[in-house]
Specification:
The chain is globular and about 50 Å long. It has one domain. By secondary structure, the chain is an alpha+beta fold.
């Protein structure tokens, strides 16, 4: 980790197939940039002061009438508060319907693997990595919630059932997304491959991380005006942290 003078707070590179976490302070902006094609970042959020409150993907989508995450949406908790806002992205679609990879998926797709045998080449699922990071903060399986899968697109296919289909080639090197924390929030992420990615070679993309200081959302902030529900989620957060 490299500490820098404001407005850039820190920089980090998370290897492909790894997990990482940090506390993002209120109004800081987290920027994630894909360093190779096919990136995927499975993301969890929870307030630092109330870790039992979690990012609620169904409420995030239902309230804002979306089937994807994109700017300028709010990422809403299970109590209706905005935990973070998607303030910018080179992509207009981030998956939030299909969850993250498990140990069984990784074994089936890529074969068995463990750290004792493969060392830094260990093929770790998103679930295993997210749980490792949660435990560092005194949390456990009860705190593992549905994730947003940044850089990945999964959309309905053209069949009669409207099946979900993974869209290959959606993210390339240089694609990015920025999240503004609306309160002090624990960010936990994994760069393991998406469970629907059809590739059978283990080559998950590393991701560049930057955190910079940001500004509070004003009255004309894009998230606040995106939908009435987005504005209410921001207002609820602001009432609760005064």
């Amino acid at each position: 980790m490299t500490l820098l003078s404001p407005p850039l707070v820190l920089t980090e590179q998370v290897p492909g197939g790894a997990a990482w976490s940090l506390v993002l302070r209120r109004h800081e902006v987290l920027r994630l940039e894909a360093l190779a094609p096919g990136a995927n970042v499975s993301l969890l959020l929870a307030p630092v002061d109330r870790p039992f409150e979690k990012l609620c993907v169904p409420d995030t989508l239902k309230a804002q009438m979306q089937a994807r995450v994109r700017p300028p949406m709010a990422l809403v908790s299970d109590t209706g508060r905005a935990l973070a806002s998607v303030v910018g992205s080179s992509l207009d679609w981030h998956d939030c319907l299909t969850g993250h990879s498990t140990d069984a998926h990784v074994r089936e797709r890529f074969g068995p693997s463990d750290y004792a045998t493969d060392r830094n080449g260990w093929r770790q699922s998103a679930r295993a990595g997210l749980l490792d990071e949660l435990r560092k903060h005194g949390l456990d399986e009860r705190d593992l919630a549905p994730t947003v899968n940044l850089f990945t697109k999964v959309a309905t296919s053209s069949d009669d059932r409207g099946s979900l289909a993974y869209v290959p080639g959606h993210a390339v090197a240089g694609d990015w997304v920025e999240l503004r924390a609306e309160l002090d929030v624990l960010v936990v992420l994994s760069t393991a491959p998406h469970p629907m990615d059809p590739r059978t070679d283990w080559a998950p993309s590393p991701v560049d991380v930057q955190v910079r200081r940001g500004d509070p959302p004003g009255t004309e902030d894009a998230t606040r005006t995106f939908r009435p529900e987005s504005g209410r989620a921001l207002a609820e957060t602001e009432r609760s942290v005064r």
